[in-house]
Amino acid sequence: MKTNLLILLTLLLAACSDQPTQPRTGEDIYYQSCFSCHERGHGGAPIRGNTEQWQPRLEQDEAIILENMRNGINGMPPKGACFDCNDKELQMALEFMLKQP
Ligand code: HEC
Predict the structure, then answer these.
(1) Where is pLDDT greater, at 15 or 61?
(2) Is residue 75 part of a domain?
(3) What is the pLDDT of residue 57?
(4) Of 24, 42, 54, 68, which residue is least crowded by CB atoms under 10 Å?
(5) From ligand 1's centre to the CA of 34, what distance in Å?
């Protein structure tokens, strides 16, 4: 009986811990941080899935794009306002944004 209670407690604790159980996807990050500007082109942001607007940007070096995402550029805040995003997550959000809607 005692053991069962212990197991139950351990399970409950595991379920309540705020450790992220699943890594965020590019889509999660997009809707959490990038959406407000990139969905409608707020402040001149290139619009999601708009090839014409993205093309000239993608012609830049990949490293420059990453640098601009990290540090921000003009109306774009550093890390696109996803302050706890790492480089990989920023890139996943970008990949999601480049897909046709
Ligand atoms: C507050 C508005 C805003 C948010 C939030 C935002 N962006 Fe932007 N973003 C912009 C604007 C404005 C530009 C255009 C900047 C310029 O070149 O003048 C831009 C440009 C970019 C570029 C092109 C950079 C380049 O090198 O040309 C990328 C990539 C980008 N954003 C990714 C993201 C990602 C990923 C997110 C979410 C994690 C995000 N943005 C969130 C406003 C925003």
Answers:
(1) 61
(2) yes
(3) 97
(4) 42
(5) 7
Of ligand 1's listed atoms, the one at least distance from the Cα of 75 is 12
At residue 79, what is the residue type?
A: K
Verify whether ligand 1 is closer than 6 Å to residue 32 (CB atom). no
Number of structural domains found in the chain: 1
CA dist., res. 70 & res. 36, Å (int): 18
pLDDT top residue among 90 and 12? 90
The more confidently predicted of residues 8 and 88 is 88
User: What is the extent of the structural domain holding 86?
Assistant: 24-98
Identify whether 4 is part of a domain: no
The radius of gyration of the chain from alpha carbons, rounded to an integer in Å, stands at 19
Q: What is the DSSP letter of 22?
A: S
Q: Is residue 60 part of a domain?
A: yes
How far is the C-alpha of 93 from the C-alpha of 96, rounded, in Å?
5
Question: 76 C-alpha to center of ligand 1: Å?
Answer: 5
Which ligand 1 atom is at minimum distance from the Cα of 60?
26
Over residues 53-61, the mean pLDDT reads: 97
- The pLDDT score that the predictor gives to residue 22 is 81
